[in-house]
Structures are given as C-alpha cells and as structure tokens.
Amino acid sequence: MSTNLNRRSAIKGILAGTAAMGIPSGFSALAMPMNNTEAQLGMLKGNINHSVSRWCFDSLDLDTLCIEAKKIGITGIDLVGPSSWPTLKKYDLVSTMCNGAEINLVDGFNDIKFHETLIKNYTEMIPLVAKAGYKNLICFSGSRRGKTDEEGWNNCVLGLQKLIPLAEKHNVILVMELLNSKIDHKDYQCDRTSWGVELAKRLNSENFKLLYDIYHMQIDEGDVIRNIRDNHQYIAHFHTAGVPGRNEIDNTQELNYEAIMKAIAKTGFKGFVGQEFIPKNPDKLASLKQAIAICDI
C-alpha cells in the first residue's frame, strides 16, 4: 500500500473518531487544541506553507473557501485584491499572492506602451499591500508580439526599475509569473525559468522574484526539480497543477509532487506553495484536501 493511501486511511480514521466525540465539523481550526488532527492535516510536518488560488474554487463564496481551507491547514489565499483582504483577515488568513495592479496577462512590462498604466497601478498598489501586512504582488511580462528576448528584457527593466525603489521602501516583492506559451498562454514571453532568471539578474533586487508555476514549467521546459534547485534564490512562490490537464495533482498525472515538494523544502524555501489546479472531482474540497496531503512532506 502506498504512503499516500496509508496517510489517507489514517486521516479518515482519526476524523471519524473526532466526529464521534461530537466536535462540530465547522468549528474553527485555530480554536481547536493543538492535537486536533483535522487542523493539522495540511501541516503534519510543517515543511511546506500551503495556500490556494481563489479562482480555482470560485464556485464557493470566499467565506466558505476561507473556512474550509483553514480546516485543512491552509494559511493563505492566492490571487485576491484589496476588496477581499478584509474577509481573509476575518479568518486570520494571509493574502499570499496579491493581485489587482496588473492590466491582464498579455499587456505587460515587456511593452513600453503599457508602462504608464502599469507604473500608475503598481505605484498605488504597493503601499496598499504593505499597509495590509502582505508581501507578494504579482506581475506579468506580457505577450511577446514579435519582440526578441533582448527587447523584452530591456523593456521590462525599463518599467520595473521605476517601481523597485518603491517596492524596496515598502518591503513588497514584485513577483513575475512563469507561464507556458505552448498550451495556455500562447506567445507569453516569460515562459522559461532562464528568461525570468535573466530578468531578475538584470534588476538585481531582492524585491523582484519569480512565481514558479510547476504546471506551466513542466509543459514548456520540464526538468522541474533541477530548475528549482538551481534557481531557488530567484523564486518567491510556487503554484501546482497536474500535467496534462491542469487538474488534480494525484497519480492520474505525470508529475511526482511528493518529490518536488521535498526538493523545494531542501532549498530552505520559506514561502508558500499555492494549489492552482482545476478540480475534476465534483467534491472540490476533497480534491483540495488530497492535494495538501500529497504536499505534506
């Protein structure tokens, strides 16, 4: 029997025992004693900090997602802006990857015609992120639109350099996401780890890093563990999903997420790993629980 099956069986038995003791299923995880296994489900070993992307579970209202996420040990919600932050604070959750300053995924920093809008948006958003007590703010390269790598790097540097001093002042990290250009985001320029790392080197600031999306990078370049190991100092955040399909990270897809999590932990990474898969299972929360159990290394 596999380790994951053993773990699931053990958890199932313990949760059944908890129900038998009459503990309400909706009871706050933080209010439970430290030996409450349901609250510890996502953090049995504490080697990975867990978050979940809001958009993947948008069939649930945000309050419900926060309540259920917290029960399984998730401590952050990805890709929410200022209007959602009060709800997260209500449940003592963190906005682990803030958004709301970007134009969209295709009109980004690699094209100077978008710089005026982007600089205005990020100049306004960076202090809000800091005031709320958060750290990461997402950004995008944008589509290539015929630009060479060099043109893309130069344009990104030109725009981002105007924001880096403000980010440094407020201790906010501008985090550019690596997206695949083969399947989901045709023509996106920051589609390789090496491209993002080169941009980070040129900016030369601890307040610019990368969002390494494991799903996207498996599609466009593979060699996931080696790329994480060799470039971890430039990575602020991770996202997950199964390949192919962008669904559950279980044994129906090709990535070994247990091994990947072990490689991430071995680098000393202290940020968050965000679940960003699209559940096929009608019981979406069951899939989320399973994903956290898989990533608990």
UniProtKB/TrEMBL annotation:
InterPro entries hit by this protein: Sugar_Epim/Isomerase, TAT_signal, Xyl_isomerase-like_sf, Xyl_isomerase-like_TIM-brl
Keyword entries, A-Z: Isomerase, Signal
Pfam families given in the database record: AP_endonuc_2 (PF01261)
Membrane-spanning residues: none
Superkingdom of source: Bacteria
UniProt signal peptide: 1-31
Domain Xylose isomerase-like TIM barrel: 103-281
PANTHER family: ISOMERASE (PTHR43489), XYLOSE ISOMERASE DOMAIN PROTEIN TIM BARREL (PTHR43489:SF3)
Name by which UniProt lists this protein: TIM barrel protein
Species of provenance: Flavobacterium algoritolerans
